[in-house]
Every structure is written in structure tokens, then in C-alpha cells.
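Q: Give me the 3D complex with D-serine.
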Amino acid sequence: MGMAAERLEVIRAADPDLAAIMERELERQEHTLELIPSENIASPAVLAAVGSWLTNKYAEGTPGKRYYGGCEFVDEVESLCQERATWLFGADHANVQPHSGSSANLAAFMTLCKPGDTILGMDLSHGGHLTHGSPVSFSGIFYHAESYGVSPETEQLDYDLVRARAREVRPQMLIAGASAYPRLFDFAALADIAAEVDARLLVDMAHFAGLVAGGAHPSPVPYADLVTLTTHKTLRGPWGGMVLSKERYAKAVDKAVFPGAQGGPLLHAIAGKAVALKAWGEPEMKDYAQRVVANAKRLADGLIAEGLRLVSGGTDNHLMLIDLRPLQLTGKAVQEVCDSARITVNRNSIPFDQASKFNPSGIRLGTPAVTTRGMGIAEMDEIATLVARLIHHLGDEAVTGEVKKRARALCEAYPLPYG
Ligand code: DSN
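A: Here is the predicted complex, encoded as C-alpha cells.
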């Protein structure tokens, strides 16, 4: 019996209703091509660590300085995770307690800014993130948020434009990083801009942390005051976040995470992060990061060859955005037809989008999860064909049915690692 079946049996004995739902979700993951670029497939060891008895322990504080007794072993777990994070990313200090990327960002804001300070982040509709200054998140509610965007000509960052915005708004903190930007960041240029206006630099590498870990993307660590990340995207760990910092911020970051932003740490999640980080010491993870990027380039080329327009003309990282405007389509219908064919993508705003946020003009896709399943260049060609067929024949049920069969065949050839 495989790992997933064993776990389902334990859950079924206690709660058959929940087990039935979880089984359907397992089947969905097993037979769906997962192209959402922020998702991935955690290893069996990560799942085992997260689903362990470490969930039983309260350990507010940091290793060696807890507010509870009985922390001697969870201290070791957290220290091991911290050591691996600092080793992997070359940081002075790592706080591995943030429950998510948003919690990590909240702690980073509390470390570097006071409420009311001006922050300058990438516009959400140009690829930024809610926590980089959106008016509906803490980042735009408690801080004075300004934004910069991509150049209308290239749909890429133009650092002269970012510099001009920074000179104009004089932020206390400049934020770089994105959830839908298919290109690399120039961290040296960003650090230079921050220095010129006397701002701190926060880089949120949630999306590309695994690419940095595997040497497939430049590292922001030497340039930024603080670097935040999530552990469940390209890094291929459990759901969670981290803050990396220079030594001079270590105490302030720890205080901002607890008691500033969170209560007790999730030791089971921290154990999962530790296992995931250890894997990055192996050559196959370096290879994985390179393959994620190579697959993304191949998928992007395939989509372009099928007559689709990609924002900025392609990708340098793990994700890409299809611009549906030339086809007079919007994202919701395309996302839904992909769902019916069991290909998961998400609709996304694109730069200078006139459509609503609920039904924007873009489709975002990426390669981290399919690469984890073992798919390569030939499979990217097939996926490009399948996605393009759905878009070009939107609503044609025969095409949707044919694509669904072909997507399922790919999934069956590359099963999840839980069997
Ligand atoms: N929601 C995440 C994403 O999908 O990119 C970012 O937090």
C-alpha cells in the first residue's frame, strides 16, 4: 500500500466523510496537469514531517529562548532548519517560523518600517503581490503605498522608470518580487535605487526561491536588507514562509515574527521545511531548478508557435502569461475550459489590462509542478498544443474531450510520488 492510501486508511477510520473528500482531491491531483506556477508537489518526506507529532508542541520564542518547557527537541528541529536555510541561501540569519509568505512580509514590514511610512512596490496588475501595497491588504492599509510598473513597450521593468518613481515618492522601503512577472530582477540596480533614496530594500522571492536555491536565478540575498520567501512554491517544501536577513536585523526580525505577527510556531511545518531544504543539497535539485526554467522556455516557445501572445514575449523563469486580448477572450472562460479538460491554470491581470480583476485578460501558467512529476521538453510541446487547442476552440466539447484524454495520459505517465 502506498503512502497516500495508508494515510487515507487512518483518516477513514476516524472520519470517513473527510477521507472521502481527501481521496477525491488526491485523485484530482493525480489526474490533473497542474500549471499554476505557485503550486508544487511536496515529497513524501515533507508530507511525513508535516503530518507528524511535532504538531503537538507549543514553542513560542526562538530556539534556546522559549516561553514553554519541553522544547529541547523542537529547539533542535528549528535550529536545524535555520542552519540549512542560511547555508542554502548564504544569509546571516533565517527566521523559519512564518506560517506563509504574507506573514513573512508582515514581519518584514514591521522590521523595516513604521505604520504610515511610504512603501514602493510593484503594481499588482503588473505582476506584484497583494502584500506589496494593495489597498485591501495590511500593506496598503497601515502604510502609505505607492507603486511602480513595467514599461509599456517591453512589458518588463525599466530601472530608470523605477528610479524615477523612487525619486518622486521617496519611500522608506522599496519592495521587489512578484507573483506574475516572467522575467528576472536586477537586484544590483534595485539596491542602488534604494540606496539613492535612502530606502531599505525588501525582496520577496516567494515565487523563485527554488530557482535561487538551484542556481537558476540570481540571488537577492547579497543586495537586500531582508528577503522573504515561501517554502511551498518552486522550493518544493510544505506550505509556509521564511525571512532571511543580515545579522544586524536578526533580533528585530525575530521580534517582528513573534510576538509581532504570530503566536506559536508550527513545528511540524518547520520540520517539513527542514527536510525540503536538505534535499537542495543534492545535485538532482539543482538539475530540477534548471529543468523548471528550460521547460518554461519550451512551453512559452510552443505557445507562441501556436499563435498565442505572451506578455513580454516569453519567460526567463518558471512562469508565463498568455495575453488573451488579441483573441478577444477573457481569462475566466479559458480557466474554466482548462478545468474541464483537467488542466489547472489561473486567470490573471496583465499589465495595462482594461478588463476587471475578476475576469482579467491573462492566463498565468508555469512549470514547477509538472517538472517535479518528471515531465520534460517533449511533454512541454504536448502541453503547449493542448492549451492552445482549448483556447483556439473554446467551447468545442469534442476538442475539450480530446484534450482531457491527452492530459490524463500525460499524468498517468508521470504519477505523483505518493503511490
Ligand atoms: N497567491 C500566490 C500566487 O498564486 O502567486 C502568491 O501569494
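A quick observation: The radius of gyration is 21 Å.
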